[in-house]
Specification:
By secondary structure, the chain is α/β, with parallel strands linked by helices. The protein contains 9 helices and 12 strands. Pathway: Carbohydrate biosynthesis; dTDP-L-rhamnose biosynthesis. InterPro entries: dTDP_dehydrorham_reduct (IPR005913), NAD(P)-bd_dom_sf (IPR036291), RmlD-like-bd (IPR029903).
């Protein structure tokens, strides 16, 4: 029986893994939360990882307050970089394989075609910089690691864009939403399925664990404006959504104007079928409305 440690199980992705892991008969799961494991405490983090002979570690924890990170640089770095370095070093000591989730914010958004894993990184925010530093630290410390970059994550769990737009759409007659930032929404449950699939294939010796950086989001492309319009359409919300430019909604941290991810690598190596973003959105909203 393989042992899997999931760090940060109280967030969107961690909760989705908890929803799915019962179907996973090849392993025993251990889940930590921010209360049971403070990842800013490097000693506690190392002790937890090395306390048992874990075979796999899934890291879902991150400092994700993008704007706040601009002034909270030290804490963002501790969680997104230093803790990831500790996870890499400690997991290497016990020969555990790591799957770590990263972000499209490692790119500056100036591309005109979907970003591949080989494209030059150039984060233009503290959040993006600390996430990139964490990626590099992990891959340096543990060669048996996978970094999964994703974008625009949402779920029926936690706070996210989908829930916010549903709430505001029900409260207001009109909303202004940015139309000049383009990317792809990602349903956290789809990402969770892929993470468990990669581990399952490795355990069953069907597809050996292939270390490195991968991109994963749902299929398709939209703006935040299109995303909102679709959320309201699926949820039967009647609200006048108006498109605005990024300059009309200034934020402390600059957002990538284009953050579409090329997913050819993960589809080729792991033979995964990736759902279209609107199909996954319908599934999530149905759960939210239950």
């Amino acid at each position: 029986m393989k042992k899997i440690l999931v760090i940060g199980s109280e967030g969107q992705l961690g909760n989705e893994i908890k929803e799915l892991y019962h179907q996973f008969r090849e392993a025993k799961f251990t889940f930590t939360t921010i209360e049971s494991l403070d990842v800013t405490n490097q000693v506690a983090l190392k002790n937890k990882i090395t306390s048992d002979s874990f075979d796999y570690i899934i890291n879902c924890t991150a400092y994700t307050a993008v704007d706040k990170a601009e002034t909270d640089k030290d804490l963002a770095d501790i969680i997104n970089n230093q803790a990831i370095k500790t996870i890499g070093k400690s997991s290497s000591e016990i020969n555990a394989k790591v799957i770590h989730v990263s972000t499209d914010y490692v790119f500056d958004g100036s591309n005109f075609k979907p970003y591949s894993e080989e494209d030059q990184t150039s984060p233009n925010s503290v959040y993006g910089k600390t996430k990139l530093d964490g990626e590099l630290a992990l891959l340096k410390e543990n060669s048996e690691s996978i970094v999964l970059r994703t974008s625009w994550l949402y779920s029926s769990f936690g706070n996210n864009f989908v829930k916010t737009m549903m709430k505001l759409g029900n409260e207001r007659d009109e909303l202004n939403v940015i139309f000049d930032q383009v990317g792809t929404p990602t349903y956290a449950r789809d990402l969770a399925k892929v993470i468990l699939y990669i581990i399952e294939k490795d355990i069953n010796l069907a597809i050996p664990f292939q270390s490195g950086i991968y991109h994963y989001s749902n299929e398709g492309v939209c703006s935040w404006f299109d995303f909102t319009k679709t959320i309201h359409e699926i949820a039967n919300i009647n609200c006048n959504v108006k498109p605005i430019e990024s300059k009309d909604y200034p934020t402390a941290a600059p957002r990538p104007h284009y953050s579409v991810l090329n997913k050819t690598k993960i589809k080729t190596i792991y033979n995964v079928d990736i759902p279209y973003w609107k199909d996954s959105l319908k599934e999530c909203i149905a759960l939210i409305n239950q």
